[in-house]
């Protein structure tokens, strides 16, 4: 009797275990007795950039006003530039270059030292004499330094140009021309001296800088603005000494007289 009870209990336990296994099998194969589908939650996609992504900077646009320079792949040769000639247009530069030389010249003129003056005259060009501010290159008297003494000693007259106003010929011996159109006043004691600047100005054209430009010559002017107060400056007079360089030295190339003209 006790054996029968044990068998019955074992059979009951086995039945219970078989039922549990069946229920688990149904859940695994999806054969559920429920007809309602289980809802699923939709997760929207994320557009956020990856934490490891590197932002890309936009390429800069070069406008016509941009200062960015594109390196050239070719080299353009630099053109050779001819140096400009030295100019003595600035009075300080002209004075520095010629002051000592012109002091020698004006002293030789004052003393009528023709030997010293000959040494100061340009050895090839000689010196040109002009009685007025307008220089006549083709007709003004031009003398080499070596010919000064002979011209001084010559008692015959020389044609030096024409008088302003009347137009009469200036026919004088060299000593007489000297007294009237070279050293007619004590220019060594002139109250005003300029370097490449014109002081005395009259009605006649002054072409000294056209004939002797400041790029190659220096003009020194000894000027008396007035000789007698009663004439109110109408009796001004100037002596211009023009120099050109040759080698390392400056030489006298022109002696230009000037005064008030009609």
Descriptive report:
With 262 residues, the protein is an alpha+beta fold. It has a domain at 91-259: Nuclear Transport Factor 2, Chain: A. It has six helices and eight strands; from the N terminus they run αααββαββαβαβββ. Helix 2 (91-111) packs antiparallel against helix 3. Residues 26-38 have a biased composition (Polar residues). Residues 24-87 are annotated as: Disordered. Residues 39-87 have a biased composition (Low complexity).
DSSP helix count?
Answer: 6
Based on the coordinates given, report the CATH architecture of the domain at 91-259. Roll
Strand percentage lies at 15-25%
Helix content: 25-40%
CA radius of gyration is 57 Å
Main sheet characteristics: 6 strands, mixed
CATH topology of the domain at 91-259: Nuclear Transport Factor 2, Chain: A
How are the strands of the largest sheet arranged?
Answer: 2-1-8-7-6-5
Please state the overall shape, judged from the principal axes of the Cα atoms: globular
Total DSSP E strands: 8
Helix and strand composition category: alpha+beta
Provide the residue-averaged pLDDT.
80
CATH class of the domain at 91-259: Alpha Beta
Low-confidence stretches: 20-57, 60-67
How far the N terminus sits from the C terminus, by CA atoms, comes to 177 Å
Instruction: Name the helix and strand elements from N-terminus to C-terminus, one letter apiece.
Output: HHHEEHEEHEHEEE
């Amino acid at each position: 009797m006790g054996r029968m009870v044990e068998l019955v209990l074992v059979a009951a336990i086995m039945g219970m275990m078989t039922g549990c296994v069946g229920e688990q099998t149904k859940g695994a194969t999806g054969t559920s007795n429920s007809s309602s589908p289980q809802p699923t939650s939709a997760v929207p996609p994320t557009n956020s950039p990856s934490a490891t992504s590197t932002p890309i900077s936009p390429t800069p646009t070069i406008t016509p006003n941009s200062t960015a320079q594109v390196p050239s792949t070719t080299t353009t040769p630099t053109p050779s530039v001819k140096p400009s000639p030295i100019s003595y247009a600035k009075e300080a530069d002209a004075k520095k270059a010629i002051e000592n030389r012109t002091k020698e010249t004006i002293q030789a003129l004052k003393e009528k030292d023709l030997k010293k003056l000959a040494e100061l005259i340009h050895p090839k060009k000689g010196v040109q004499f002009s009685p007025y501010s307008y220089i006549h290159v083709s007709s003004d008297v031009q003398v080499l330094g070596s010919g000064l003494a002979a011209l001084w000693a010559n008692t015959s007259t020389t044609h030096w140009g024409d008088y302003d106003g009347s137009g009469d010929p200036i026919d004088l011996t060299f000593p007489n021309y000297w007294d009237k159109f070279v050293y007619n006043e004590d220019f060594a004691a002139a109250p005003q001296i300029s370097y490449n600047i014109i002081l005395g100005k009259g009605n006649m054209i002054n072409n000294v800088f056209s004939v002797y430009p400041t790029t190659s010559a220096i003009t020194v002017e000894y000027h008396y603005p007035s000789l007698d107060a009663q004439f109110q400056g109408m009796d001004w007079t100037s002596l211009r000494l023009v120099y050109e360089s040759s080698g390392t030295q400056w030489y006298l190339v022109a002696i230009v007289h000037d005064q008030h003209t009609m």
